[in-house]
Amino acid sequence: MSVIRRKTRTISIRLSDDEYGALRDVCESQGVRSLSDFARLAIENLSVGGGLEAQVTVKTRLETLASRVDVLDLAVERLAGIFEGNGRNGGTEPSAQLGTEDAVPA
Fold first, then answer.
1. Domain ranges in the chain?
2. How far apart are the first and last CA of the chain?
């Protein structure tokens, strides 16, 4: 059983009507009891989860992965074209002649 500590500090932020409505909608959809509880949870998640820097790192890594998947997708399409006889040399391009431009970056 957790001990509920009395809340004694107050913070204040200003929101537009649209921001306030969107925040209330999120609270309701997530089953959060109040805007204060939602703000408290958000602050805790940021501080425990590594903060904004961790979010930026994850975003950067996802963008890198997405670009690598795009490169791989193009390489697969190109190889499929070669095997179907639609490659640069009419499907006769030996794998030994594939240049470094065909390599997938690490």
1. 13-49, 51-106
2. 50
